[in-house]
Predict the structure.
Amino acid sequence: MPEGHSIRHLATIHEGAFAGKTVRASSPQGRFADEAKNIDNRILNNTTAHGKHLFLHFDTGQTVHVHLGLYGWFYLSKNPNKKPKDSTRLRLQHDIYISDLVAPTACELLDDAGVSAIKKRLGPDPIHDDADPEQAWKKIVKSKRTIAGLLMDQSVIAGIGNVYRAELLFLSRLDPFIPGTQMQREKFDEIWRNASILLRDGSTDGKIRTVAPEHLGEDEVKLHGCSQFSYVYKRQRQSCRLCMTEVKETELDSRTLYWCPTCQR
DNA sequence: TGAGTATGTTCAG
DNA sequence: TGAACCTACTCAT
């Protein structure tokens, strides 16, 4: 489930498990073997996250940069005898914890310049206290692209993926297809504010929660806290939770967009 | 058991 | 714009 909230969640978990400790690093799959040797038996200083990018900073001055992509994930375990899968790109281990990274889009060893280059091409991340929404607003308001497309552009705002995109647009009752040039400042501020709140909330346990309890069905209320619900994401051909109009889906920039044509006019 | 789908990004053409 | 990356889950057979 790798949107920004998951990456922050994983950064926090890895910092708690490994920071300040001497870590064994290996690559059972082999594709990160040479790089793993550089950080094997070194101390992991701390972790950071920006958008969907995770950084593990070592005392060598080097940083492991991970992007999970669509399939990637870290599997944490306390079982010292756990066997890695053949596909495990990176295994981090010390006395207590094992973390296995499987199927990431990116796993590479960078110096400070490499880390800076990645952060430079990313927009502000609403999960950060010191993120500057002005940077995002300036790009949005001068773009003719749709607001739905702009919200998914990591160089505009970092960390929002397809689920949060759909839900944020619904929460602000925004037509996904209006161009950035027609965005109202108040609407942008609302999206930014909601993104900050929802991403932070999701980062506590890695789960996306966007629906207010009063908008959940009776059966769903019983499950609330165990499962994830949405207003429009993946609810195509179902009724809108608020107005009962059928939720629509369409392809936009090669991703599926979900919206309520009545609430989001 | 196999097909289909997915919360993402990069690169070739 | 489409293919590639190459995992986990759901659903139909």
